[in-house]
Amino acid sequence: MRDLRGSGRLRRTLIGVLLGTALLTGCAEKQEANDTLPSTSASPTTEALPELGPADFPVPDEARTKDAAGAEAFLRYWIDLINRQRTVPAGQPLRDLGPDCNDCWRIANNYDEALAAGRRYDGGKLTLNDVTEPQFTGDEASINFGVRQEAVVMVDAAGTPVDSGLPTQPNLSSGVTLVWSEADISWLVVSMTLG
Amino acid sequence: MTRATLRGLFVAAALVGALLVATPAAACGYDIECPVELEEGAATVTFEGASVPAVVGVSGLEAGQYAYQMLDRCLAAAETRAYCSPTDVRECPQQPGRVIDFFVVNRRPIVPSQGPAIEPVPDGFGPGDPIGDWSFFSEGCYDVTDLNPPPSGAEVFSYFERLPLPQLTTQHQPPGDGLTGLPVIFYTDSPTTQTFTVDIRGFSVVIQATAERFTWHTGDATGQITSIDPGAPYPNQTVEHSYRSGTYTAHLTVTWSATFTVNGSAPADVPGTTTTDGPPVTFDVLQARPVLTNPYD
């Protein structure tokens, strides 16, 4: 798969050179000739990627390449993000990165509702087990994986369980479908199944 | 995966433009895959299992490489945004004796029992295990008659015992206070039959309920009197009871039986009965004393 960030840098460098040339040729006033040409060293062209994800937990650069490594890196970041948001709890970052993902919204809404009710999750950390090679269809990448989830229970502000919770699940059969977003220069989650 | 559902609610939604609210299942508060349960009392509109591929037109190797799930379009919408609106409902051309409805079909790869899997299999999963993500496969009108057998008597009974059957009112004579030595007549003039039409998994089921036994709780040491008719007022009374003087509270318990038809079939008995208790009535029974009087006074 093509690394779009690489081609972007090349494009920006070419633009810089052309702009520099235009400025040089556009001077109308007579000037004394120099022995040396004006410097054409352009300012750095490595613009930062558009911000994505929570400010203090952004989508890492390695997850923003349109290739297999980028897709897998995004999955690993995504699982870490779910773990992070569960502990807050707060769902909006999951909705931002999965705007059309039903299950992502369900989980995000759970987190927001827990916060509104003064509840929190005790346990539930997800840990990736085996992750298979991403399969690509057009701009989409599908990844199958197993994931372990630690025992989890929702508790109220006093720490009292509000239900029976779930036991440890050592290897939930799971999958995620990602789509490449040119606007975000990143993968986004289309759908996800945990278990 | 458990689901309860909504066909009856579709009708209500279509009529009043209401939104159907999905009730999350218990596990829905957590991260793992979560079935949506809709309000109790309507038909199941989700199908899964080995018979589904044939219904959605899949055969051969492909049938063994995926698990298929048929969701009513309304349920699919409810899973997406937690409610279903009338615009989510699609009508399908019907055929006599068939159940044809509009479904969204999703599928998920499984590890096949023979041959290679369609997608990479993570470590730890074997034949029959689902892998990967659910994805949309198709949507349209499907004949689910073979997946959706007509309601059994037992299933109809589970609806029958929850129907709002009438609570029959106890009438007594003489009105007001009774007299010792003069039996109190009991009867009810409330309706003793009632017809209900319910929708069970897409089948129109007509339940004809009939009061078959009347238990009159007399409110004294006698306890109760049972009859197979609703009684009648004087002079055709069939249920009466003599009291000592005192204050008594009586009520009527009715045992209901029923027959049912499915999509206009021949009637069959509902296997079981249910009861309703009518409101209590309280009356005094007075002791009459003979008093000599002069009629010419």
TrEMBL record, chain A:
Residues 34-46 have a biased composition (Polar residues). Residues 32-62 are annotated as: Disordered. This is Lipoprotein. It comes from Blastococcus mobilis.
UniProtKB/TrEMBL annotation, chain B:
Keywords: Signal. This is PKD domain-containing protein. The keyword Signal applies. It comes from Blastococcus mobilis. Residues 1-27 form the signal peptide.
